[in-house]
Design goal:
heterodimer; A: 397 residues; alpha+beta; 5-stranded antiparallel β-sheet; 31% helix; 24% strand; globular; B: 201 residues; 4-stranded antiparallel β-sheet; 3-stranded antiparallel β-sheet; 3 helices
Protein backbone atom coordinates (compact mmCIF):
# COMPACT_ATOMS: atom_id res chain seq x y z
CA UNK A 1 0.00 0.00 0.00
CA UNK A 2 1.51 3.26 -1.14
CA UNK A 3 0.36 6.80 -1.71
CA UNK A 4 1.33 7.69 -5.29
CA UNK A 5 1.53 11.30 -6.53
CA UNK A 6 0.01 10.38 -9.85
CA UNK A 7 -1.46 13.72 -10.94
CA UNK A 8 -5.05 14.49 -11.89
CA UNK A 9 -6.78 13.92 -15.17
CA UNK A 10 -6.62 17.30 -16.96
CA UNK A 11 -10.39 17.34 -17.43
CA UNK A 12 -11.43 15.75 -14.13
CA UNK A 13 -13.52 18.74 -13.10
CA UNK A 14 -15.50 18.75 -16.34
CA UNK A 15 -16.00 15.01 -15.95
CA UNK A 16 -17.23 15.46 -12.39
CA UNK A 17 -19.65 18.18 -13.45
CA UNK A 18 -20.86 16.12 -16.41
CA UNK A 19 -21.55 13.20 -14.08
CA UNK A 20 -23.59 15.47 -11.82
CA UNK A 21 -20.95 15.08 -9.08
CA UNK A 22 -21.48 18.55 -7.64
CA UNK A 23 -19.95 17.97 -4.23
CA UNK A 24 -16.44 17.26 -5.49
CA UNK A 25 -15.52 20.41 -3.57
CA UNK A 26 -17.18 21.19 -0.24
CA UNK A 27 -16.79 23.99 2.26
CA UNK A 28 -14.11 25.42 -0.07
CA UNK A 29 -11.98 22.27 0.25
CA UNK A 30 -11.51 19.46 -2.25
CA UNK A 31 -13.55 16.37 -1.39
CA UNK A 32 -12.68 14.31 -4.47
CA UNK A 33 -8.88 14.37 -4.72
CA UNK A 34 -7.16 12.29 -7.39
CA UNK A 35 -3.86 14.21 -7.39
CA UNK A 36 -2.46 11.40 -5.27
CA UNK A 37 -3.97 7.94 -5.06
CA UNK A 38 -3.43 4.68 -3.20
CA UNK A 39 -1.81 1.64 -4.72
CA UNK A 40 -2.37 -1.88 -3.37
CA UNK A 41 -1.22 -5.36 -4.25
CA UNK A 42 -3.83 -7.99 -5.00
CA UNK A 43 -2.71 -9.93 -1.91
CA UNK A 44 -3.21 -6.90 0.31
CA UNK A 45 -6.73 -6.38 -1.03
CA UNK A 46 -7.81 -10.01 -0.92
CA UNK A 47 -6.10 -11.21 2.25
CA UNK A 48 -6.19 -8.09 4.40
CA UNK A 49 -9.36 -6.24 3.34
CA UNK A 50 -11.80 -8.46 1.42
CA UNK A 51 -11.70 -11.70 3.41
CA UNK A 52 -11.52 -10.05 6.86
CA UNK A 53 -14.44 -7.73 6.03
CA UNK A 54 -16.61 -10.65 4.98
CA UNK A 55 -15.62 -12.38 8.20
CA UNK A 56 -16.32 -9.27 10.27
CA UNK A 57 -19.81 -9.05 8.81
CA UNK A 58 -20.44 -12.68 9.79
CA UNK A 59 -19.20 -11.87 13.31
CA UNK A 60 -21.53 -8.86 13.48
CA UNK A 61 -24.41 -11.15 12.54
CA UNK A 62 -23.43 -13.52 15.33
CA UNK A 63 -23.31 -10.62 17.76
CA UNK A 64 -26.75 -9.45 16.57
CA UNK A 65 -28.11 -12.93 17.26
CA UNK A 66 -26.79 -12.68 20.77
CA UNK A 67 -27.94 -9.10 21.47
CA UNK A 68 -31.56 -9.77 20.45
CA UNK A 69 -31.69 -12.41 23.22
CA UNK A 70 -30.29 -10.12 25.89
CA UNK A 71 -32.43 -7.32 27.38
CA UNK A 72 -29.50 -5.75 29.17
CA UNK A 73 -27.59 -5.36 25.91
CA UNK A 74 -30.67 -4.00 24.11
CA UNK A 75 -30.82 -1.34 26.85
CA UNK A 76 -27.12 -0.58 26.64
CA UNK A 77 -27.50 0.02 22.91
CA UNK A 78 -30.21 2.56 23.77
CA UNK A 79 -32.76 0.93 21.49
CA UNK A 80 -36.19 2.25 22.53
CA UNK A 81 -37.91 -0.47 24.53
CA UNK A 82 -41.23 0.13 22.75
CA UNK A 83 -39.64 -1.15 19.53
CA UNK A 84 -37.61 -4.08 20.75
CA UNK A 85 -40.11 -6.51 19.23
CA UNK A 86 -39.79 -4.86 15.83
CA UNK A 87 -35.99 -5.09 15.92
CA UNK A 88 -35.91 -8.64 17.29
CA UNK A 89 -38.59 -9.85 14.89
CA UNK A 90 -36.74 -8.42 11.88
CA UNK A 91 -33.73 -10.49 12.92
CA UNK A 92 -35.58 -13.68 13.73
CA UNK A 93 -37.59 -13.63 10.53
CA UNK A 94 -34.37 -13.25 8.53
CA UNK A 95 -35.10 -9.86 6.95
CA UNK A 96 -32.35 -9.44 4.32
CA UNK A 97 -29.68 -6.75 4.54
CA UNK A 98 -28.58 -4.71 1.52
CA UNK A 99 -25.25 -3.05 2.25
CA UNK A 100 -22.82 -1.58 4.74
CA UNK A 101 -19.32 -0.15 4.97
CA UNK A 102 -16.59 -1.02 7.45
CA UNK A 103 -14.10 1.67 8.39
CA UNK A 104 -10.71 0.03 8.73
CA UNK A 105 -7.26 1.21 9.78
CA UNK A 106 -4.61 -0.42 7.58
CA UNK A 107 -1.07 0.45 6.55
CA UNK A 108 -0.30 -2.33 4.08
CA UNK A 109 1.10 -4.71 6.65
CA UNK A 110 -0.52 -6.73 9.37
CA UNK A 111 -4.20 -7.08 10.06
CA UNK A 112 -6.61 -4.26 9.29
CA UNK A 113 -8.40 -3.03 12.41
CA UNK A 114 -12.13 -2.39 12.42
CA UNK A 115 -12.96 1.07 13.76
CA UNK A 116 -16.69 0.79 13.21
CA UNK A 117 -19.37 -0.53 10.92
CA UNK A 118 -21.56 1.92 9.00
CA UNK A 119 -24.12 -0.78 8.55
CA UNK A 120 -27.24 1.36 8.36
CA UNK A 121 -26.74 4.54 6.32
CA UNK A 122 -23.36 4.42 4.59
CA UNK A 123 -22.79 7.19 2.05
CA UNK A 124 -19.99 7.98 -0.45
CA UNK A 125 -21.44 5.28 -2.67
CA UNK A 126 -21.43 7.26 -5.92
CA UNK A 127 -17.82 8.38 -5.64
CA UNK A 128 -16.73 4.89 -4.62
CA UNK A 129 -18.75 2.71 -6.99
CA UNK A 130 -18.96 5.00 -10.02
CA UNK A 131 -16.59 7.97 -10.15
CA UNK A 132 -13.65 5.99 -8.81
CA UNK A 133 -14.38 3.35 -11.45
CA UNK A 134 -14.39 5.95 -14.26
CA UNK A 135 -11.14 7.36 -12.93
CA UNK A 136 -9.38 4.03 -13.43
CA UNK A 137 -10.91 3.49 -16.87
CA UNK A 138 -9.69 6.96 -17.92
CA UNK A 139 -6.20 6.42 -16.51
CA UNK A 140 -5.85 3.13 -18.36
CA UNK A 141 -7.26 4.62 -21.58
CA UNK A 142 -4.77 7.50 -21.32
CA UNK A 143 -1.91 5.03 -20.93
CA UNK A 144 -1.06 6.39 -17.48
CA UNK A 145 -1.67 3.03 -15.81
CA UNK A 146 -1.04 -0.38 -17.40
CA UNK A 147 -3.95 -2.21 -19.03
CA UNK A 148 -3.94 -4.93 -16.36
CA UNK A 149 -4.38 -2.47 -13.50
CA UNK A 150 -7.47 -3.32 -11.48
CA UNK A 151 -9.58 -1.91 -8.66
CA UNK A 152 -11.50 -3.55 -5.85
CA UNK A 153 -14.87 -2.27 -6.95
CA UNK A 154 -17.52 -4.88 -7.72
CA UNK A 155 -19.96 -2.81 -5.67
CA UNK A 156 -22.43 -1.80 -8.36
CA UNK A 157 -22.79 -5.28 -9.84
CA UNK A 158 -23.15 -6.77 -6.40
CA UNK A 159 -25.85 -4.27 -5.45
CA UNK A 160 -27.80 -5.09 -8.61
CA UNK A 161 -27.51 -8.79 -7.88
CA UNK A 162 -28.55 -8.27 -4.27
CA UNK A 163 -31.62 -6.21 -5.22
CA UNK A 164 -32.56 -9.09 -7.52
CA UNK A 165 -32.25 -11.54 -4.64
CA UNK A 166 -34.38 -9.47 -2.31
CA UNK A 167 -37.18 -8.43 -4.70
CA UNK A 168 -39.05 -10.06 -7.57
CA UNK A 169 -38.68 -8.28 -10.92
CA UNK A 170 -41.10 -5.39 -11.29
CA UNK A 171 -41.34 -4.70 -7.57
CA UNK A 172 -41.63 -1.02 -6.78
CA UNK A 173 -39.10 0.23 -4.24
CA UNK A 174 -39.20 3.70 -2.73
CA UNK A 175 -35.96 5.43 -1.82
CA UNK A 176 -36.15 7.96 1.00
CA UNK A 177 -33.62 10.58 2.01
CA UNK A 178 -33.55 14.30 2.67
CA UNK A 179 -33.74 15.64 -0.86
CA UNK A 180 -31.74 18.78 -0.03
CA UNK A 181 -28.77 16.88 1.41
CA UNK A 182 -26.79 16.32 -1.77
CA UNK A 183 -24.45 13.60 -0.53
CA UNK A 184 -27.27 11.56 0.95
CA UNK A 185 -29.43 12.02 -2.12
CA UNK A 186 -26.58 10.96 -4.42
CA UNK A 187 -26.18 7.71 -2.54
CA UNK A 188 -29.88 6.94 -2.97
CA UNK A 189 -29.60 7.77 -6.68
CA UNK A 190 -26.72 5.33 -7.03
CA UNK A 191 -28.79 2.65 -5.31
CA UNK A 192 -31.76 3.45 -7.53
CA UNK A 193 -29.62 2.81 -10.61
CA UNK A 194 -28.66 -0.57 -9.18
CA UNK A 195 -32.30 -1.35 -8.39
CA UNK A 196 -33.37 -0.45 -11.91
CA UNK A 197 -30.63 -2.61 -13.34
CA UNK A 198 -32.33 -5.43 -11.39
CA UNK A 199 -35.64 -4.60 -13.16
CA UNK A 200 -37.19 -2.96 -10.12
CA UNK A 201 -39.19 0.26 -10.13
CA UNK A 202 -37.33 3.00 -8.23
CA UNK A 203 -39.19 5.98 -6.78
CA UNK A 204 -37.95 8.80 -4.60
CA UNK A 205 -39.73 10.19 -1.58
CA UNK A 206 -38.41 12.77 0.85
CA UNK A 207 -38.32 11.14 4.26
CA UNK A 208 -40.25 14.10 5.74
CA UNK A 209 -43.07 13.64 3.23
CA UNK A 210 -43.89 10.03 4.01
CA UNK A 211 -47.54 9.79 4.98
CA UNK A 212 -49.76 7.30 6.70
CA UNK A 213 -52.88 5.92 5.01
CA UNK A 214 -56.16 5.18 6.73
CA UNK A 215 -55.15 1.50 6.62
CA UNK A 216 -51.90 2.23 8.46
CA UNK A 217 -49.59 1.86 5.51
CA UNK A 218 -46.93 4.33 4.42
CA UNK A 219 -47.49 6.45 1.33
CA UNK A 220 -45.30 8.75 -0.75
CA UNK A 221 -45.87 12.43 -1.52
CA UNK A 222 -48.29 11.43 -4.27
CA UNK A 223 -50.32 9.24 -1.93
CA UNK A 224 -49.07 6.02 -3.47
CA UNK A 225 -48.67 3.14 -1.06
CA UNK A 226 -45.07 2.21 -0.20
CA UNK A 227 -44.52 -1.54 -0.16
CA UNK A 228 -40.72 -1.52 0.04
CA UNK A 229 -38.65 1.31 1.43
CA UNK A 230 -34.94 1.99 1.37
CA UNK A 231 -34.27 4.79 3.85
CA UNK A 232 -31.07 6.75 4.10
CA UNK A 233 -32.06 7.77 7.60
CA UNK A 234 -30.72 6.13 10.75
CA UNK A 235 -32.73 3.54 12.61
CA UNK A 236 -31.96 5.26 15.91
CA UNK A 237 -33.84 8.32 14.63
CA UNK A 238 -36.54 6.32 12.87
CA UNK A 239 -37.40 4.53 16.12
CA UNK A 240 -37.74 7.86 17.94
CA UNK A 241 -39.98 9.49 15.33
CA UNK A 242 -43.74 9.94 15.62
CA UNK A 243 -44.42 7.33 12.94
CA UNK A 244 -42.34 4.64 14.65
CA UNK A 245 -45.47 3.10 16.19
CA UNK A 246 -46.78 2.44 12.68
CA UNK A 247 -43.71 0.55 11.46
CA UNK A 248 -44.88 -2.82 12.76
CA UNK A 249 -48.27 -2.71 11.02
CA UNK A 250 -47.28 -0.93 7.81
CA UNK A 251 -46.72 -4.11 5.81
CA UNK A 252 -43.62 -2.47 4.37
CA UNK A 253 -40.26 -4.13 3.75
CA UNK A 254 -37.50 -1.88 4.99
CA UNK A 255 -33.90 -1.57 3.91
CA UNK A 256 -31.82 -1.72 5.90
CA UNK A 257 -33.90 -4.06 8.11
CA UNK A 258 -34.57 -2.95 11.68
CA UNK A 259 -31.90 -5.25 13.11
CA UNK A 260 -29.29 -2.97 11.55
CA UNK A 261 -30.12 -0.72 14.54
CA UNK A 262 -27.99 -3.24 16.45
CA UNK A 263 -25.21 -3.80 13.93
CA UNK A 264 -24.69 -0.10 13.15
CA UNK A 265 -24.66 0.76 16.84
CA UNK A 266 -21.22 1.40 18.35
CA UNK A 267 -22.40 -0.74 21.25
CA UNK A 268 -21.76 -3.77 19.06
CA UNK A 269 -17.99 -3.12 19.40
CA UNK A 270 -17.72 -4.19 23.08
CA UNK A 271 -20.00 -7.15 22.37
CA UNK A 272 -17.76 -8.25 19.49
CA UNK A 273 -14.70 -7.94 21.72
CA UNK A 274 -16.35 -10.02 24.41
CA UNK A 275 -17.33 -12.72 21.92
CA UNK A 276 -14.14 -12.70 19.83
CA UNK A 277 -11.53 -11.34 22.25
CA UNK A 278 -8.13 -11.18 20.58
CA UNK A 279 -9.47 -11.43 17.01
CA UNK A 280 -6.79 -9.86 14.77
CA UNK A 281 -9.22 -7.45 13.08
CA UNK A 282 -10.82 -6.18 16.29
CA UNK A 283 -9.65 -3.51 18.69
CA UNK A 284 -10.36 -4.01 22.39
CA UNK A 285 -13.63 -2.24 23.19
CA UNK A 286 -15.78 -1.80 26.29
CA UNK A 287 -18.87 0.01 27.43
CA UNK A 288 -17.60 3.15 29.18
CA UNK A 289 -18.73 2.04 32.63
CA UNK A 290 -17.07 -1.36 32.20
CA UNK A 291 -13.74 0.32 31.82
CA UNK A 292 -14.27 2.43 34.95
CA UNK A 293 -15.38 -0.64 36.92
CA UNK A 294 -12.49 -2.77 35.73
CA UNK A 295 -12.48 -6.51 35.01
CA UNK A 296 -10.17 -9.31 33.98
CA UNK A 297 -11.01 -8.54 30.34
CA UNK A 298 -10.16 -4.86 30.84
CA UNK A 299 -6.87 -5.88 32.48
CA UNK A 300 -5.98 -8.12 29.55
CA UNK A 301 -6.42 -5.09 27.25
CA UNK A 302 -4.31 -2.81 29.49
CA UNK A 303 -1.44 -2.61 27.04
CA UNK A 304 -3.65 -1.67 24.10
CA UNK A 305 -5.61 0.83 26.19
CA UNK A 306 -2.37 2.43 27.38
CA UNK A 307 -1.67 3.47 23.77
CA UNK A 308 -4.83 5.53 23.85
CA UNK A 309 -8.59 5.34 24.31
CA UNK A 310 -11.19 6.53 21.83
CA UNK A 311 -14.55 7.47 23.33
CA UNK A 312 -17.50 7.27 20.97
CA UNK A 313 -21.25 7.64 21.52
CA UNK A 314 -23.30 4.55 20.59
CA UNK A 315 -24.86 6.70 17.87
CA UNK A 316 -22.61 8.94 15.83
CA UNK A 317 -22.21 10.04 12.25
CA UNK A 318 -19.18 11.57 10.56
CA UNK A 319 -17.02 11.39 13.65
CA UNK A 320 -19.23 13.65 15.78
CA UNK A 321 -18.63 13.61 19.56
CA UNK A 322 -15.54 11.38 19.33
CA UNK A 323 -12.67 12.03 21.76
CA UNK A 324 -9.18 10.47 21.71
CA UNK A 325 -7.24 10.32 25.00
CA UNK A 326 -3.70 9.29 25.78
CA UNK A 327 -2.44 9.06 29.36
CA UNK A 328 -5.71 10.59 30.52
CA UNK A 329 -5.13 13.62 28.29
CA UNK A 330 -7.29 14.55 25.31
CA UNK A 331 -5.09 14.53 22.20
CA UNK A 332 -7.85 15.10 19.71
CA UNK A 333 -11.58 15.64 19.72
CA UNK A 334 -14.29 16.28 17.19
CA UNK A 335 -15.63 19.84 16.99
CA UNK A 336 -19.08 18.48 16.35
CA UNK A 337 -20.46 17.47 19.77
CA UNK A 338 -24.02 16.72 18.66
CA UNK A 339 -24.14 13.18 20.06
CA UNK A 340 -22.65 13.96 23.49
CA UNK A 341 -25.77 12.97 25.44
CA UNK A 342 -25.78 9.32 24.45
CA UNK A 343 -24.18 6.29 26.13
CA UNK A 344 -20.48 5.96 25.33
CA UNK A 345 -18.17 3.13 24.45
CA UNK A 346 -14.38 3.12 24.79
CA UNK A 347 -12.18 1.54 22.13
CA UNK A 348 -8.41 1.06 22.17
CA UNK A 349 -6.74 3.59 19.90
CA UNK A 350 -5.10 2.21 16.76
CA UNK A 351 -2.28 4.44 15.53
CA UNK A 352 -3.09 5.36 11.96
CA UNK A 353 -0.51 5.44 9.19
CA UNK A 354 0.48 8.92 8.01
CA UNK A 355 1.10 9.09 4.28
CA UNK A 356 1.95 12.40 2.63
CA UNK A 357 0.71 14.18 5.74
CA UNK A 358 -2.69 12.47 5.67
CA UNK A 359 -4.23 9.57 7.55
CA UNK A 360 -6.07 7.17 5.26
CA UNK A 361 -9.10 5.14 6.33
CA UNK A 362 -10.30 2.24 4.25
CA UNK A 363 -14.01 1.87 3.69
CA UNK A 364 -14.77 -1.72 2.69
CA UNK A 365 -18.19 -2.28 1.15
CA UNK A 366 -20.27 -5.24 2.16
CA UNK A 367 -23.25 -6.14 -0.03
CA UNK A 368 -25.47 -8.86 1.33
CA UNK A 369 -22.98 -10.82 3.41
CA UNK A 370 -19.88 -10.40 1.23
CA UNK A 371 -17.21 -7.73 0.91
CA UNK A 372 -17.23 -6.52 -2.72
CA UNK A 373 -15.30 -3.26 -2.95
CA UNK A 374 -13.53 -0.42 -1.24
CA UNK A 375 -12.98 3.30 -1.17
CA UNK A 376 -10.52 5.40 0.81
CA UNK A 377 -10.85 8.69 2.60
CA UNK A 378 -8.01 10.58 4.17
CA UNK A 379 -7.93 13.33 6.76
CA UNK A 380 -5.20 15.42 8.33
CA UNK A 381 -6.73 14.73 11.72
CA UNK A 382 -7.14 11.41 13.49
CA UNK A 383 -10.90 11.67 13.37
CA UNK A 384 -12.23 11.25 9.85
CA UNK A 385 -14.89 13.93 9.56
CA UNK A 386 -16.90 15.62 6.90
CA UNK A 387 -13.87 17.52 5.56
CA UNK A 388 -12.03 14.34 4.73
CA UNK A 389 -11.07 13.67 1.12
CA UNK A 390 -12.11 10.75 -1.02
CA UNK A 391 -9.15 9.09 -2.74
CA UNK A 392 -9.18 6.63 -5.65
CA UNK A 393 -7.19 3.41 -5.43
CA UNK A 394 -5.90 0.80 -7.82
CA UNK A 395 -4.52 -2.72 -7.64
CA UNK A 396 -1.05 -2.88 -9.16
CA UNK A 397 -0.83 -4.89 -12.38
CA UNK B 1 -0.90 -32.04 -16.34
CA UNK B 2 -0.94 -28.38 -17.21
CA UNK B 3 -1.56 -25.70 -14.68
CA UNK B 4 -4.37 -23.23 -15.36
CA UNK B 5 -3.40 -19.90 -16.84
CA UNK B 6 -3.24 -17.43 -13.96
CA UNK B 7 -3.44 -14.26 -16.02
CA UNK B 8 -7.10 -14.60 -16.93
CA UNK B 9 -8.48 -14.07 -13.44
CA UNK B 10 -11.75 -12.23 -13.17
CA UNK B 11 -11.32 -8.48 -12.63
CA UNK B 12 -12.21 -7.23 -9.18
CA UNK B 13 -14.26 -4.38 -10.57
CA UNK B 14 -17.76 -4.19 -11.98
CA UNK B 15 -18.59 -3.97 -15.62
CA UNK B 16 -20.74 -0.85 -15.54
CA UNK B 17 -21.25 2.29 -17.49
CA UNK B 18 -20.88 5.43 -15.44
CA UNK B 19 -24.05 6.83 -13.99
CA UNK B 20 -25.18 10.43 -13.83
CA UNK B 21 -26.38 12.15 -10.72
CA UNK B 22 -28.98 14.84 -10.44
CA UNK B 23 -30.97 13.79 -13.46
CA UNK B 24 -34.37 12.20 -13.64
CA UNK B 25 -32.78 8.97 -14.79
CA UNK B 26 -32.34 7.28 -11.44
CA UNK B 27 -35.94 7.53 -10.37
CA UNK B 28 -39.05 6.77 -12.37
CA UNK B 29 -41.17 9.77 -13.22
CA UNK B 30 -44.65 9.71 -11.79
CA UNK B 31 -46.01 10.53 -15.26
CA UNK B 32 -44.78 7.22 -16.62
CA UNK B 33 -47.35 5.51 -14.45
CA UNK B 34 -50.08 7.00 -16.55
CA UNK B 35 -49.20 5.45 -19.89
CA UNK B 36 -52.24 4.08 -21.63
CA UNK B 37 -52.37 0.40 -22.45
CA UNK B 38 -54.50 -1.18 -25.18
CA UNK B 39 -56.60 -3.69 -23.27
CA UNK B 40 -58.85 -6.66 -23.98
CA UNK B 41 -61.38 -8.05 -21.54
CA UNK B 42 -62.77 -11.56 -21.88
CA UNK B 43 -65.32 -13.50 -19.81
CA UNK B 44 -63.41 -16.76 -20.37
CA UNK B 45 -60.32 -18.35 -21.85
CA UNK B 46 -62.29 -19.89 -24.72
CA UNK B 47 -63.69 -16.52 -25.83
CA UNK B 48 -60.19 -15.06 -25.85
CA UNK B 49 -58.95 -17.93 -27.99
CA UNK B 50 -61.86 -17.66 -30.38
CA UNK B 51 -61.14 -13.95 -30.92
CA UNK B 52 -57.42 -14.54 -31.34
CA UNK B 53 -57.80 -16.02 -34.80
CA UNK B 54 -59.77 -13.02 -36.14
CA UNK B 55 -58.27 -10.20 -38.15
CA UNK B 56 -56.88 -7.27 -36.22
CA UNK B 57 -56.20 -9.14 -33.04
CA UNK B 58 -52.85 -8.38 -31.45
CA UNK B 59 -52.89 -11.50 -29.27
CA UNK B 60 -52.45 -15.21 -29.92
CA UNK B 61 -54.12 -18.27 -28.43
CA UNK B 62 -50.93 -18.93 -26.46
CA UNK B 63 -51.10 -15.43 -25.02
CA UNK B 64 -54.70 -16.08 -24.03
CA UNK B 65 -53.64 -19.14 -22.04
CA UNK B 66 -50.66 -17.41 -20.44
CA UNK B 67 -52.74 -14.39 -19.49
CA UNK B 68 -55.50 -16.57 -18.08
CA UNK B 69 -52.99 -18.46 -15.96
CA UNK B 70 -51.58 -15.15 -14.68
CA UNK B 71 -55.08 -13.90 -13.89
CA UNK B 72 -55.88 -17.11 -12.01
CA UNK B 73 -52.68 -16.74 -10.01
CA UNK B 74 -53.59 -13.14 -9.19
CA UNK B 75 -57.05 -14.35 -8.22
CA UNK B 76 -55.61 -16.81 -5.72
CA UNK B 77 -53.31 -14.14 -4.32
CA UNK B 78 -55.56 -11.15 -4.17
CA UNK B 79 -59.24 -12.07 -4.62
CA UNK B 80 -61.37 -10.27 -2.04
CA UNK B 81 -62.00 -12.68 0.81
CA UNK B 82 -64.94 -12.60 3.21
CA UNK B 83 -65.65 -14.27 6.50
CA UNK B 84 -69.38 -14.55 5.68
CA UNK B 85 -70.94 -16.03 2.58
CA UNK B 86 -73.85 -13.62 2.74
CA UNK B 87 -71.59 -10.59 2.61
CA UNK B 88 -69.60 -12.01 -0.30
CA UNK B 89 -72.79 -12.67 -2.24
CA UNK B 90 -74.03 -9.15 -1.57
CA UNK B 91 -70.78 -7.65 -2.83
CA UNK B 92 -70.46 -9.83 -5.92
CA UNK B 93 -73.92 -10.52 -7.23
CA UNK B 94 -74.24 -13.91 -5.62
CA UNK B 95 -71.28 -15.48 -7.41
CA UNK B 96 -69.21 -16.72 -4.50
CA UNK B 97 -67.58 -19.97 -3.44
CA UNK B 98 -65.94 -21.24 -0.26
CA UNK B 99 -62.40 -22.29 0.53
CA UNK B 100 -60.96 -23.53 3.84
CA UNK B 101 -59.84 -20.75 6.15
CA UNK B 102 -56.03 -20.58 6.28
CA UNK B 103 -56.07 -20.76 10.07
CA UNK B 104 -57.97 -24.05 9.89
CA UNK B 105 -61.57 -24.61 10.97
CA UNK B 106 -64.36 -23.00 8.99
CA UNK B 107 -64.42 -21.41 5.58
CA UNK B 108 -63.82 -18.11 3.91
CA UNK B 109 -65.66 -16.91 0.84
CA UNK B 110 -64.49 -15.37 -2.38
CA UNK B 111 -66.11 -14.38 -5.68
CA UNK B 112 -65.79 -16.47 -8.82
CA UNK B 113 -63.76 -14.92 -11.60
CA UNK B 114 -66.09 -13.24 -14.06
CA UNK B 115 -63.35 -12.99 -16.66
CA UNK B 116 -59.98 -11.37 -17.05
CA UNK B 117 -58.27 -8.44 -18.65
CA UNK B 118 -54.99 -8.44 -20.52
CA UNK B 119 -52.98 -5.51 -21.86
CA UNK B 120 -51.01 -5.20 -25.07
CA UNK B 121 -47.64 -4.68 -23.50
CA UNK B 122 -45.71 -4.84 -26.76
CA UNK B 123 -42.59 -2.78 -26.29
CA UNK B 124 -43.42 -2.38 -22.63
CA UNK B 125 -41.70 -5.16 -20.76
CA UNK B 126 -42.60 -3.88 -17.33
CA UNK B 127 -43.47 -7.20 -15.79
CA UNK B 128 -45.41 -5.62 -12.95
CA UNK B 129 -48.38 -5.16 -15.28
CA UNK B 130 -49.94 -8.59 -14.98
CA UNK B 131 -53.23 -9.73 -16.46
CA UNK B 132 -55.91 -9.24 -13.82
CA UNK B 133 -59.00 -11.24 -12.86
CA UNK B 134 -62.32 -9.39 -12.74
CA UNK B 135 -65.35 -9.89 -10.50
CA UNK B 136 -68.97 -8.86 -10.55
CA UNK B 137 -69.74 -5.95 -8.27
CA UNK B 138 -72.88 -5.22 -6.27
CA UNK B 139 -73.65 -2.41 -8.72
CA UNK B 140 -73.79 -4.82 -11.67
CA UNK B 141 -70.41 -3.81 -13.03
CA UNK B 142 -67.05 -5.55 -12.96
CA UNK B 143 -63.88 -4.77 -11.01
CA UNK B 144 -60.29 -5.95 -10.70
CA UNK B 145 -58.77 -6.67 -7.29
CA UNK B 146 -56.85 -3.40 -7.72
CA UNK B 147 -60.13 -1.50 -7.99
CA UNK B 148 -60.35 -0.74 -11.70
CA UNK B 149 -64.07 -0.64 -12.61
CA UNK B 150 -65.30 -2.02 -15.94
CA UNK B 151 -68.77 -1.73 -17.43
CA UNK B 152 -68.59 -5.08 -19.14
CA UNK B 153 -66.61 -8.30 -18.98
CA UNK B 154 -66.10 -8.31 -22.72
CA UNK B 155 -64.59 -5.69 -24.98
CA UNK B 156 -61.54 -3.55 -25.60
CA UNK B 157 -60.34 -0.16 -24.49
CA UNK B 158 -57.49 2.04 -23.38
CA UNK B 159 -56.60 1.60 -19.74
CA UNK B 160 -54.04 3.20 -17.54
CA UNK B 161 -51.04 0.98 -17.00
CA UNK B 162 -51.71 1.21 -13.28
CA UNK B 163 -54.93 -0.78 -13.87
CA UNK B 164 -52.68 -3.81 -14.25
CA UNK B 165 -50.90 -3.40 -10.97
CA UNK B 166 -51.34 -6.35 -8.67
CA UNK B 167 -54.33 -6.12 -6.41
CA UNK B 168 -54.25 -5.62 -2.69
CA UNK B 169 -53.55 -8.52 -0.40
CA UNK B 170 -56.33 -9.23 2.05
CA UNK B 171 -54.39 -7.41 4.72
CA UNK B 172 -53.40 -4.18 3.07
CA UNK B 173 -53.37 -2.15 -0.10
CA UNK B 174 -50.80 -3.02 -2.72
CA UNK B 175 -47.73 -0.90 -3.27
CA UNK B 176 -48.18 2.10 -5.56
CA UNK B 177 -51.97 2.08 -5.40
CA UNK B 178 -53.27 5.49 -4.48
CA UNK B 179 -54.53 5.63 -0.97
CA UNK B 180 -56.05 8.24 1.29
CA UNK B 181 -53.38 9.68 3.50
CA UNK B 182 -54.49 10.82 6.90
CA UNK B 183 -51.21 12.26 8.15
CA UNK B 184 -47.70 12.85 6.92
CA UNK B 185 -44.32 14.04 8.10
CA UNK B 186 -44.00 11.53 10.91
CA UNK B 187 -40.41 10.73 10.03
CA UNK B 188 -37.44 13.04 9.90
CA UNK B 189 -37.32 14.67 13.33
CA UNK B 190 -33.83 13.23 13.82
CA UNK B 191 -33.95 13.25 17.58
CA UNK B 192 -30.57 11.69 18.34
CA UNK B 193 -28.57 14.54 16.84
CA UNK B 194 -28.79 18.29 16.94
CA UNK B 195 -27.17 18.82 13.55
CA UNK B 196 -28.71 18.12 10.18
CA UNK B 197 -25.83 18.14 7.73
CA UNK B 198 -26.41 14.62 6.63
CA UNK B 199 -27.46 11.24 7.89
CA UNK B 200 -24.90 9.14 6.14
CA UNK B 201 -21.56 8.15 7.52
Amino acid sequence: MQRIEIGTRPDWKEKAEAAGFKFHTMYGEPYWDESSVYEFTLEQVENDIEEPSTELHAMCREAAGRIVEDEELMSRLDIPRAHWDLVVESWKSGQPELYGRFDLVYDGTGPAKMLEYNADTPTSLFESASFQWSWLEDMIAAGRLPEETDQFNGTFEALTERFGEIFAPGTDVHFAAFEDLLEDYSTTEMLAYAARAADLGAHFVDIRKIGLTDKGQFADAESRVIGALFKLYPWEDMLRDDFADHLAGANCQLLEPAWKAIVSNKGILPVLWEMFEGHPNLLPAFFADEIEAGSARVDRAAQALARGIVRKPVFSREGASITIEQDGRVIEQAQERTYDDHPMIAQAYAEMPVMGGFRPIIGSWVVGETCVGMGLREDRSRITQDLSRFKPHYIRA
Amino acid sequence: MTSPEQKTRRPKRSRITPVMLGGAAAFALAGCQDDRVETQVFPSLSECQAEASKDGSWWTQEECSAAFADAEAAHKESAPRYAEEKLCNEQHGGACYAEPAPSGGGSIFLPLMAGYMMGNLMGNNNSSYKPQPIYRTSAGKFATPGGTILNSNKGSGQFRATSFRSGPSTKAAAPMTRASVKSSGGFGASRTSTSSRGFGG
